[in-house]
Specification:
The structure is a homodimer of 127-residue chains. The first copy, chain A, is α+β, with helices and mostly antiparallel strands and 127 residues long. Chain A has helices at residues 27-39, 42-48, 53-66, 88-107, 109-118; strands spanning 12-19, 23-25, 72-74, 84-86. Chain A has one domain (17-117): Winged helix-like DNA-binding domain superfamily/Winged helix DNA-binding domain (Arc Repressor Mutant, subunit A, Orthogonal Bundle), CATH 1.10.10.10. Chain A has a two-stranded antiparallel ribbon with strand order 1-2. A two-stranded antiparallel sheet of chain A has the order 3-4. Chains A and B meet through strand 1, helix 4 and helix 5 of A and strand 1, helix 4 and helix 5 of B.
């Protein structure tokens, strides 16, 4: 869109919702859930994000214990991995997080535009 | 408030507004600006946040070059530090960031409540 302009690109949001000192959901976990939903495997979803197998499992473990019901159900397999699916809870958590992001973007559009207008002109490109 | 309940505390937000690959404002920079405004010194504001002198100056340098006008003006002093004040731009940036946070909390209250209600009961304390 604006790739060849020297105006900075429009702002993107990275929102972490923090529940006390342990529970948190942010852009990384949301993306991981989305990719698991799409590719049916925790390991494959993590690989797509350049995340180690161990790290991807840790994040899902955290989410599974954070909510009353698990967000992902998996059949743990051999080295090739087993399958994994988002539960109804997982689908809801993901949808609520994305809806929250959208609400922020809409409700705060005026503030975002004002901040954007105050940026210095630089030779930057959209990503 | 709910300190002795076993319900998780109400969610807090940590929002980063990302302008392209360089510019970003989030909770840390906002808090630093607020503390500079209150204590009139970059070094002292950084210390209150357990941030090194170097780090605090770097963050302010980043903000100053990110916006068309500087957000903080300082009289660089000796080891004791000089003074620093938020410019009109700095006041505006801070106010817009805080207003954006408030808009998100209001507009997304329903999503936050729904996520909160899905958390597992744990023995956590409000912070």
């Amino acid at each position: 869109m604006m790739s060849h302009s020297n105006r900075p690109p429009h702002p993107a949001l990275r929102i972490r919702i923090v529940f006390g000192k342990d529970g948190m959901i942010g852009p990384g976990k949301a993306e991981l859930l989305e990719r698991i939903d799409r590719c049916g495997s925790i390991a494959a979803a993590g690989r797509e994000m350049n995340m180690s197998y161990k790290r991807a499992w840790e994040l899902i473990g955290t989410l599974n214990s954070m909510f009353r019901d698990p967000v992902v159900e998996s059949t743990r397999g051999g080295p090739g991995g087993g399958g994994a699916v988002l539960t109804d809870t997982g689908q809801q958590v993901l949808a609520l997080y994305r809806a929250f992001e959208a609400q922020c973007t809409n409700a705060g559009a005026q503030q975002l535009d004002s901040l954007h207008a105050m940026l210095s002109d630089r030779d930057v490109q959209d990503e």
